[in-house]
């Protein structure tokens, strides 16, 4: 039986998994752990695809998407949130303090302010410079593995065996204004079923949404697949579509089941998962489709 608690996250985010594990070791539950773990990346201005310092859309607006899900199957999400760093915390407040699941744009921001969150400029000197450099050519094409250690999706199991998950992102760099990805869409960017397991996605959100990726992975686990097999089948679902141009984009999934087994898989090489369990916090290179 797997050692609990445990935390996994997309990409190379050891500071975030350290924080989440600290919460779990101090008796916090899985929901607290994933929120606080994700907040580490949101606050880090060096990260260019989440929170403060996230790359803007093509018009220079930094717009955030995030969601969170608990062991009861409750969920909260924010889309197109501006000027508030901790999108994941607003998602949690939507879940806990409103009758709704999702708040967008100005309404999400006003709600955050009403809860005492501070408005700030999320465009930093370096993300502004990157955008200005991009504008010279204004070529829009998703860059494979741009997130590297940035955008974060996290899943945790606490010592009671309960599962929670969260994800938070500034979305694709230089997206069209108004674009929303998979990350705040329950079942696409994230899905948790406390009886079965959880999954979170990263990469080109449009492709994840089209296959309702995270829900698919959890359903496959429900029907007996291991987390690894389920992630692989969900990636296969994307690449085996007629006319899929999967060579040009990345999608990666990580998953955990109720037993604490984990898996990860992506289309292209260099996706990784960070895993903290039994005193070991490690980056694990993920297996991939395009060999
Ligand atoms: C999106 N899936 O907005 C997000 C981006 C992402 O790692 O995950 N980056 O499409």
UniProtKB/TrEMBL annotation:
NCBIfam families reported in the protein's UniProt record: TAT_signal_seq
Classification via InterPro entries: Ntn_hydrolases_N, Peptidase_T2, TAT_signal_bac_arc
Species in which this protein is naturally found: Winogradskyella poriferorum
Lineage of producing organism: Bacteria, Pseudomonadati, Bacteroidota, Flavobacteriia, Flavobacteriales
Name of the protein in question: N(4)-(Beta-N-acetylglucosaminyl)-L-asparaginase
PANTHER family: L-ASPARAGINASE, N(4)-(BETA-N-ACETYLGLUCOSAMINYL)-L-ASPARAGINASE
One Pfam family of this chain: Asparaginase_2
PROSITE patterns in alphabetical order: PROKAR_LIPOPROTEIN
